Fold this protein.
Amino acid sequence: MVESRDPGPSLRAAPFGTGVQKVVRLLSARQRSQIGNMATCVRVPARTLVCREGASAHAVFIVETGAAKMFRDLPSGKRRVTAFLFPDDVCGLAQHGQYVDTVQTITPVTLYRIPVATLADIFRRDPELAVHFLCKVTHELRGSLQHTVTVARRDAVGRVTMFLRMLEQNDIRAGSRIWTPMSRSDVASYLGLSLEAVSRALGSLHRSRIIALEGRHEIQIVDRLRFERMAAAL
Amino acid sequence: MVESRDPGPSLRAAPFGTGVQKVVRLLSARQRSQIGNMATCVRVPARTLVCREGASAHAVFIVETGAAKMFRDLPSGKRRVTAFLFPDDVCGLAQHGQYVDTVQTITPVTLYRIPVATLADIFRRDPELAVHFLCKVTHELRGSLQHTVTVARRDAVGRVTMFLRMLEQNDIRAGSRIWTPMSRSDVASYLGLSLEAVSRALGSLHRSRIIALEGRHEIQIVDRLRFERMAAAL
DNA sequence: CGTACCGTTGAGCAGGCTCAACCGCTGTGG
DNA sequence: CCACAGCGGTTGAGCCTGCTCAACGGTACG
């Protein structure tokens, strides 16, 4: 671990203002402990549901460690992964008092569980904190827009490349390796590809010496220039 | 116009809570006038830039009437429409003090221009209002997720159908006709299709007697059952 | 040690993209 | 008033890429 983490829940996002030009952890130590005191810290094993689409939304969650996936079931019975969640991500924001997506852990996850009523209180007491949440959701919105641009591409290799770049930018840790805890099938569902196409794309990038596969859940970018060219081109 | 509109800027979104089960205008008359007093109302002709990607973000905007498109330019030079904006939509939320998307009007538009400093003041004074903005951005996030699911579909007809349904749900007015002020080319860019594919898809839906084309910028759903089946199937 | 799931690789098909021509409306200038 | 240019939209022909189906290999977990 390159960066030391203060205790308590945090929110990772790019700020609105002109200050820092990167993705940072938003909350002050005081705000973290303030939320931390109102929240319950939960430890969830791998492959476990955190919340279910359509269920009554009594709480929102902030991921502290581990990785999870967010998905929704389509009327056809198919399943689409809408996002991957990493430390300092939020999930469980509701619509009409119901969760809109199901969240399932990939690795073991620790997360903070905050009742919505409590969160409303916190916002009333500390408007600054509400703005931080606004910033975080706006950040998620930008991520989703980027996701859409990615999925709109025709070529599988390009989509996978942009996906890897997204994972890399998302990770605050300075490591040169990209952590990919999710399965190929999850990636495929996220990118709107068949899992075979994902496999072929990764194989292609590997054969071209653009990436190196360090086991199944870590990827190293070998040729940064061609990697960026790949991600940029459409 | 079926519904009477109170004066002042508003925000259209689905609330967090379990109350109303639909998309509504969020702000109270007091809050509307409160923002309205701090904002300048601007009238913009059709095909005009509201804000430009990368420019310094000094203000956010709330659309009052008309329609606009939001897009970003890709490194390749291509352009992707990321969203269409209608009355009570927000745009201009920044990242690192810069706009991330360009916004251009489609029809003549009236909008409220709110300096970011002013908005921050308003949030500090009225936390409830900050929560409403949070609700709106969350609503946008949901819309973007839905957009991604739409774009991830393989078939052009399905994508266009889901697009029309999105437009219909987006419109608060009770009218049975869907207003489509944007060009086929804009739709194509939004859906990640070629404009020919959009044209063919609409033609196909028309020949199947599922929709009726009332001029170029209005569409009527004729066969609701098959329309929903089309949108649901994947 | 066995089994089931994840991942890879191959062959054939379908749907959407590209290129290209054509149509209709609009606005403009002679 | 009409001719023409320009743009947005529709339609057609051929190609290309990713999907589907299928078989095989490897790894993690019981």
User: Anything to note?
Assistant: Residues 154-156, 193-194, 196-197, 200 of chain B lie near DNA strand C (CB under 10 Å from a C1'). The radius of gyration of chain B is 18 Å. Chain B has seven helices and 15 strands. Chain B touches chain A through 55 residues (CB under 8 Å).
